[in-house]
């Protein structure tokens, strides 16, 4: 019996040894994959970053990262408060550039920061840190840059091309319906003031003016196009209202002005041509926000 069992035991040992060797090879390959890096050409110079980052702290540009399915473990408070990203950030923690202890605790393998932020040198000691200057790139180029950073440039560039095509097509349909000369203004409520926006200040302005080719009122073009935003008081609200108004409603401020005769007598209000968006869900120009607003604008203008 022992003579019969011996070959089988020997065979079993060989099989287990081979399995163990394969498992070790697999673990070694996985570890090597995790440590692979690429050189990202940032605005401050080349930075060695993980080829496939697993734990990202996004002190800025978090929504762009989420759009490319990057795993964020630390996020700024403003992005965290945005209702569009609630589900995607349920496991992320709020962190700031000042709380280096929290940054260290989260064990990031990539940090994304703004050029205006403090402690960038100290952040770089914790993990590879890439810096962006707000407004240096337009909203589409910014997404492509995040794509390069996450080794997902193709996904980013494909989305940009497709989004531009769809936005232009929607703009043609909308202009055909409302008229080439119809004007659209984007107005936001504040505590004691109002804001009107140019063509690159989120709230869907990039879609409406750049992508769709819709017109802004002359006064808005004069005062907000170059600066991006213009602040005014309620008394002159009608002066900034276009034929159509995108009303960025801030739920945290007093919006009782909508019950006043001044507001109700604005032609766009009388004609039912005011489309309301949530300020908290509209202050970024990332793909998630843009796709949501594009759908809303198409439905609102075209009545789909």
UniProtKB/TrEMBL annotation:
Compartment(s) of residence: Cell envelope
Keyword terms: Signal, Transport
SUPFAM superfamilies: Helical backbone' metal receptor
PROSITE patterns named among the record's database cross-references: FE_B12_PBP, PROKAR_LIPOPROTEIN
Listed Basic and acidic residues bias regions: 24-36
Pfam families in the record: Peripla_BP_2
Region (Disordered): 24-45
Annotated protein name in UniProt: Iron-hydroxamate ABC transporter substrate-binding protein
The organism's taxonomic lineage, starting at the top: Bacteria, Bacillati, Bacillota, Bacilli, Bacillales
């Amino acid at each position: 019996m022992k003579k019969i069992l011996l070959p089988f035991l020997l065979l079993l040992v060989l099989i287990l040894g081979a399995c163990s060797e394969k498992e070790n090879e697999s673990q070694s390959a996985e570890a090597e994959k995790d440590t692979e890096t690429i050189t990202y050409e940032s605005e401050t110079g080349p930075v060695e970053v993980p080829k496939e980052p697993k734990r990202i702290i996004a002190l800025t540009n978090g929504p762009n990262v989420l759009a490319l399915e990057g795993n964020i473990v630390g996020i700024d408070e403003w992005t965290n408060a945005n209702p569009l990203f609630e589900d995607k950030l349920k496991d992320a923690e709020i962190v700031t550039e000042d709380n280096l202890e929290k940054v260290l605790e989260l064990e990031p393998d990539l940090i994304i920061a703004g050029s205006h932020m403090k402690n960038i040198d100290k952040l770089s000691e914790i993990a590879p840190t890439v810096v962006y200057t707000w407004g240096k790139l337009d909203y589409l180029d910014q997404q492509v840059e995040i794509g390069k950073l996450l080794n997902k440039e193709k996904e980013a560039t494909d989305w940009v091309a497709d989004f531009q095509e769809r936005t232009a097509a929607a703009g043609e349909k909308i202009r055909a319906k409302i008229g080439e000369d119809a004007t659209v203004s984007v107005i936001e409520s504040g505590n004691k003031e109002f804001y009107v926006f140019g063509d690159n200040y989120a709230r869907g302005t990039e879609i409406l003016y750049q992508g769709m080719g819709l017109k802004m009122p002359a006064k808005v073009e004069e005062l907000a196009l170059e600066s991006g935003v213009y602040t005014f008081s309620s008394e002159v609200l009608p002066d900034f209202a276009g034929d159509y108004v995108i009303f960025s409603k801030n739920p945290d401020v007093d919006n009782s002005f909508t019950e006043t005769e001044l507001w109700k007598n604005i032609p766009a209000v009388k004609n039912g041509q005011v489309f309301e968006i949530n300020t908290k869900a509209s202050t970024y120009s990332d793909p998630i926000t843009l796709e949501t607003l594009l759908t809303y604008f198409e439905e609102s203008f075209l009545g789909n």
